[in-house]
Amino acid sequence: MGKKNILLKSAACVGIFSVAAFSQINISVDANAGIKKISPYIYGRNIDNNYISDTSLVSTDKEDAFIAQMLDAGIHMMRSNTGNNATRYNWRKKLTVHPDWYNNVYTHDWDITAKKVLDKMPGVDAMYAFQLNGYAAKTNEYNFADWDWYVEHGSNAKQTLDLAGGGEVSADGQTAIKEGDGLLYCEPWPADSTVGIVPHWRDELKYDMSRFQYWSMDNEMDIWKSSLSDLNLNITGDFLVERYIDVAKKARAAWGDIKLTGPVVANEWQWCHIAATAEDNHRPTIDGKSYCWLEFFIKKVAEAEKASGVRLLDVFDIHWYPTEKDYKNRINWHRVLYDTTYYYEGGNGVRCASGTCDWSNEIAGYKAYRSYIFVRINQWLEKYFGKDHGITLAITETDLNDSDPMVTALTYASFLGTMQDNGVEIFTPWSWGDGMYETVHLFSRYGHPNRVESVSSNDSLVSGYSSISNAGDSLTVIFVNRAESAAQNVELSLKNFKVNPGEVTMLTLSELKGETFVSHTQNALQKGSLQVSADGKASLSLKAKSITAVMFATNEPEAPIKTSKILAENILNYKDGKWVVQNSSGQVFEALIFNCLGKQVKTQKLNSGNVMLSTENLNSGHYIVQFKTSEGMRMQKITLH
Fold first, then answer.
1. Phi-psi bin for 435: left (phi > 0), alpha (psi -120 to 50), beta?
2. Quick one: which H or E segment has residue 105?
3. Which residues, other chains included, contact 254 with Cβ-Cβ below 8 Å and sequence gap of 6+?
4. Dihedral angle, C-alpha 349, 392, 207, 56, nearest 10 °
5. 239-246: long-range contacts at Cβ-Cβ below 8 A with a sequence spacing of 24 or more?
6. Cβ distance 84 to 100 under 8 Å?
7. Around Cβ 72, how many Cβ atoms within 10 Å?
């Protein structure tokens, strides 16, 4: 296919490589439009056990410095389950299997890392994981003698071979002559066992479980055919969903407020395929019809939820590891998530999003390469769960690193802005590179809790990501200039925000070299100023490959942001022996009541005003009331006497 034609189809490729600046890019920000609560958990990362030990509660200087840097950068979520190593974690014996290291079993203690989160990381919550495959580590007595091998042969053994449990390896270390037996070092681990960590932490260790509300439903079960090959499981789409539903029901029964995240797919190919030979070309089937794996999962879980009355999914979680090395692709990766017009040459799995695959390379319409995975997921969720389902989105693993820290920073900034614009709840990149602390610090520490709409006349080249305070008196616009070599002239227009005219602060990241972030006060931010007129107009020139935050204020704020007002209040109040729904705003639409076992026992549509919660015919005891609101789902505990 001709690259020239591709460039004509994709606006991203026009301008990024131009050598001269455009005469003007217009960006309009409307403080009253597109308001969405920004989840603090998009400012997240995966745990790094090279710095945070899970074998000792005793701190080291290295660990304390790492935590201080992370807190100063504004990190609010740490995914602490260590990915594939969580799949067979035994919280009772503090052991887990390492599928990427011969399946050897090593000591790990989540009690320790969770305690460090509670004691040392204020403002940071953590995500751990349940095991769904039915097995957990039992003993390290059958580990492959990796050190002995290295001493004799050198470090050549292929690390993903099934060598624990009596396996034998070829002389060159690349083939298992005899595969190990996983049942020697694993024990049965049913749903009751895996969710038992919740009462262990809550009731025995007395941990504050509000800091551990999100639980990953295992990790990348779509590749269990390879990562759990030592267990010889019969991996099919139905098997995976059955395991998910079993654990989800037990988890909800153990803790009604828990937030379950799944299916935690491995990569772009697995968005539509699972590593299972029993399916149609690795896509699951229903009555002979092939489905994209994500749609199949959503359909099956929605059916189970409706049949049982138990909420089974709160956050839809995917992984993605793009591999392109060139600047053009990297700087446009974020568009794969939402842009229905973007032609992504690296898209393969989504060619099968309809259940059948389009392997053509025709340019006309360039449909086969258009991913827009967030849009597809939301469409499937609404199709099978219905409107106002309240299920949010997450990406809990990706790798955005480049050898140039500024490219890493630009790519990460584009992802953070995309998370804000699309209402994503959790974003935790797997790898962490130079430039990322600087970027998350700018967004997290200088942005505000509520996203507002920004429109750019050339969004592929220069984006504006805007946020406003709860009180409506402060507004930050973060500009991402992706032009590789040219400054860009921007005309900014603020709407529905009576800005204080004059000089405002401008903070810029550009030309980053190495790790420059030390703390909130010692970093690479370049401080400048900008003149803004009383009518909300400003002109600025953005450096090539730069990220710039401009902070505006007003002495005449509009009414406080509605989303913040709703989220800050209890929806239910107890008055005169009755539970009353405070719905003067009319933004609370429905109440669903669940008993202590997680079973839905009542549904009530809600009108505006103060509405009495209908609890007749319900027994005395503890219940969870789940509200559907204009901002998504809210939950509140009540006790009926």
1. left
2. strand 104-107
3. 195, 196, 198, 199
4. 30
5. 240/132, 240/274, 240/297, 241/296, 241/297, 241/300, 241/301, 241/304, 243/132, 243/133, 243/134, 244/132, 244/217, 244/218, 244/297, 244/301, 244/312, 245/300, 245/301, 245/304, 245/312, 246/132, 246/191
6. yes
7. 18
Q: Which of 150, 257, 271, 178 is nearest to 213 (CA)?
A: 257
Tokens representing residue 480 in the block: 């991402």
Q: Strand, coil or helix: what is 261?
A: strand
C-alpha distances (whole Å) from 360 to each of 218, 273, 287 are 35, 19, 27
Question: Beta-strand (E) ranges in 24-85?
Answer: 25-30, 36-37, 44-46, 77-79
Could you tell me which of 483, 349, 463, 339 has the C-alpha nearest to residue 406?
A: 483
For 134-175, the pLDDT digits (tens) are 999 999 999 999 999 888 888 888 999 999 999 999 999 999
Find all residues with CB under 8 Å of 24, minimum gap 6, and list them. 489, 490, 491
Residues 220-258, buried b or exposed e (16+ Cβ, 10 A)? bbbbbbebbbbbebebbbbbbbebbbbbbbbbbbbbbeb
Q: What is the mean pLDDT of residues 560-582?
A: 67
- pLDDT tens digits, 4-32: 222 222 333 333 444 344 569 999 999 99
Please name every residue paired with 362 in a beta bridge, in sequence order, or none if there are none.
none
- Output b/e per residue, 185-202; b: 16+ Cβ within 10 A: bbbebebebbbbbbeebe
Q: What is the DSSP string of 436-487?
A: HHHHHHHHHHHS-SEEEEEEETTTTTEEEEEEE-TTS-EEEEEEEE--SS--
pTM of the model: 0.86
Look at residue 56 and tell me whether its pLDDT is greater than 60.
yes
The β-bridge relationship of strands 462-468 and 537-542 is unpaired
**Composition of the chain by helix, strand, coil, percent to 5:** 30, 30, 45
- Chain-centroid distance, C-alpha 173: 37
Q: What is the pLDDT of residues 463-491, one digit of tens each?
A: 999 999 999 999 999 999 999 999 999 99
Cα dihedral angle (317, 93, 55, 108), rounded to 10 degrees? -30
**Residue among 476, 411, 474, 482 at smallest CA distance from 443:** 476
Give all strands of the β-sheet with 609-612 in edge-to-edge order: 572-575, 578-583, 609-612
Q: Please tell me whether residue 547 adopts helix, strand or coil conformation.
A: strand
At residue 528, the 3 state secondary structure works out as strand
What pLDDT digit, counting tens, does each position of 518-550 carry?
999 999 999 999 999 999 999 999 999 999 999
Report the sign of the C-alpha dihedral through residues 518, 521, 526, 530, in that order.
positive
Tens-digit pLDDT profile for residues 422-479: 999 999 999 999 999 999 999 999 999 999 999 999 999 999 999 999 999 999 999 9
Residue 166: per-residue pLDDT: 96
The string of DSSP letters for 140-162 reads STT---HHHHHHHH-S-S-TTS-
DSSP string, 199-247: HIIIIIS---GGGG-EEEESS-GGGHHHHTGGGT----HHHHHHHHHHH
- Burial label, 431 (beta-carbon count in 10 A; 0-12, 13-18, 19+): middle
Dump pLDDT digits (tens) for 94-136: 999 999 999 999 999 999 999 999 999 999 999 999 999 999 9
